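Following up on my earlier thread - several people asked me to post the actual chain instead of describing it. Fair enough. Here it is, all 259 residues.
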Amino acid sequence: MSIPVNTFKRGILQGQVQIGLWSQLGNPISVEMIAGSGVDWIGLDAEHGPSELVDVYYQLQACAAGGNAHPVVRVPWNDRVLIKQYLDIGAQTLVVPQVETAGQAREVVWATRYTPRGGRGYCGAPRASKFGRVKDYPFVYEQELCVLIQPETAVALKNLEEMAAVDGIDGFFFGPGDLAADLGYLHQATHADVVKELVSGAKRVRAAGKAAGIICMNEALTRQYIEAGFNIVAVGSDQSILTRGADELAVKFKGASNK
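Reply from S.P.:
Thanks for posting it. Predicted structure:
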């Protein structure tokens, strides 16, 4: 028995743009529904969504049941214990928020590797190894492991090249909302100055041989980001699909809007 192939990572390595949907509801039913949509990946949000470890466990199962979309798990923080737990339950691609320096990036990598390459705690039969049925799991899991970090501050932007040079970092998932706030544009993620920094950041990390990711709900801007080199792109979320769909129906039949 073998571990699942990380189709998301393979796609990045083959130069394919990976289109995804974000899941904030923390509900395995909604995950199962959008996983069958045909997108390449589903973002499971344990940072800003209501999900905790066991919730993500169920969402990983739902993602596998719903379709072929690869689950990408955003952990709550750069914490070695949390990272260990999410890896043990079967997450193969992690997004770690608020990483600003090469030292912090090395901490992320260290938390994802077993000794002597890191400090990931050992478990003999985690779900990730199909409960021990993948006999060589500790020696092969890195082949299917993908680690993304989030630059979300001006400090992080200054350190992009240094962080990109850290062995084991596969890419950067830029956080437009937090970055906008740190640059003085709170709640203005589409401000021209913010977009300029994001585009520049994507070009810099791609030049360093790393992937560049982002989430954007504006179609025109999303296409601009793809043209600029972003190759991991979330184009919507279960929350936004439900909210906007409900609003559109209310306007259509009641002629009013809560906006």
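Residues 7-254 form a domain with the TIM Barrel fold (CATH 3.20.20.60). That should answer part of your original question.
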